[in-house]
Amino acid sequence: MIQVIAFDLDDTLWAVKPIIINAEERLNNWLAANVPQLKYDVSSMRELRHDLLNAEPQLINRISEFRQRLMERAMMLSDINAQLSNVLSHQAMEIFLEARNEIVFYDGAMDAIKQLSSRFTLGALSNGNADIKRLGLKDYFSFGFTAEEVGAPKPAPNLFNRALEHAGCEPHQMVYVGDDPVLDVDSANERGLHTVWVKHPEKDKVGSTDPDEVIGHIRQLPAAIDQLIRKLNAAG
């Protein structure tokens, strides 16, 4: 019996590219207005990534902390003292996260979430740093975990293990919904979850395992879940 439906977020419930572009533009504007002595912008800061990871390799799977530390490093290289760099970089990160969580759901996504939340426990498992509280999903989602919280991104099993532990269910009682055939479908299948692949026609990436259901748009998810339940019931 299906009890829990967990979602990937970026490119499953909304298109992430325009959101990141907007968030970085807002961050650039804030930095220009509040840290005029900074010798870097968001684009040129990327040149510092390699050196920072060499110095602090543990940041590789901590995307929010990594971005904050990258800004802090850029500020210090701009002759801003360490204490002020730390304060300003945390303020800048808050500006980025605020904009990063101003999303536009795919048409029908919220309708699907509302329908399913009346029947199942819902949750989010993401390699990104979207926040269900900031997104206004807390009323519908019982949990939301990120790779940064659990220590490793998909395809590692950490996110799925945390969700199963939190929900108190077995893998076959959870469905995972995502757009990436490798990071979402293959990794969830390997852990024993049921899977629904939201297949975007412009993406040609393929995985090594088959999802239980394939949909072309997130609005089709409630019907796909019903279809999966019928199949499971028929199989006994």
Structural key phrases:
236 residues, alpha/beta, six-stranded parallel beta sheet, 10 helices, 47% helix
Topology:
Blueprint: E1 4-7, H1 17-34, H2 42-45, H3 49-55, H4 63-76, H5 82-100, H6 109-117, E2 121-126, E3 141-146, H7 147-150, H8 158-167, E4 174-178, H9 181-191, E5 194-198, E6 213-215, H10 221-235
Helix pairs in contact: 1-5, 4-5
Describe this structure in words.
With 236 residues, this protein is of the alpha/beta class. 47% of the residues lie in helices and 12% in strands. The protein is built from ten helices and six strands. A six-stranded parallel β-sheet has the order 3-2-1-4-5-6, with helices on both faces. Strand 4, helix 9 and strand 5 form a beta-alpha-beta unit. Helix 1 runs antiparallel to helix 5 (82-100) and helix 4 (63-76) crosses helix 5 (82-100). The longest helix is centred in the middle third of the chain and has 19 residues, at 82-100. The termini are close together. The model has no long low-confidence stretch (mean pLDDT 96).
Specify the biggest β-sheet. 6 strands, parallel
Q: Topology as H/E string?
A: EHHHHHHEEHHEHEEH
Shape: elongated
| SS field, number of helical segments | 10
Strand order of the largest sheet: 3-2-1-4-5-6
Provide a short characterization of the protein structure.
The protein is of the alpha/beta class and 236 residues long. It contains ten helices and six strands.
